[in-house]
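Posted in: Protein Modeling Q&A

I'm a second-year student putting together a small comparison for a lab meeting, and my supervisor asked me to include a predicted structure for Large ribosomal subunit protein bL33c. I've never done this before, so apologies if this is the wrong subforum. The sequence is pasted below exactly as I got it from our records. If anyone can share the structure token output, I'd also love a short note on what stands out.
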Amino acid sequence: MAKGKDARITVILECTSCVRNGVNKVSTGISRYITEKNRHNTPNRLELRKFCPFCYKHMIHGEIKK
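Accepted answer (user: helix_wrangler)
Welcome! Here is the predicted structure, written out as tokens:
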């Protein structure tokens, strides 16, 4: 049986390096990924190492507000 609120929510992960540095001069844009997380298992903000095409390497992507 389903509980009242959905435990699984959609979150957006954004590259922390691109945001901090104001993006490279050569390419414009910020790397973002869309994923899901279980609210009950991970109540705090999610951080994952993902590939950033603007930094050309794996960087930490943190959860942002919608």
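A couple of things worth pointing out for your meeting: Residues 16-21 form the longest helix (6 residues). The CA atoms of residues 27 and 54 lie 7 Å apart.
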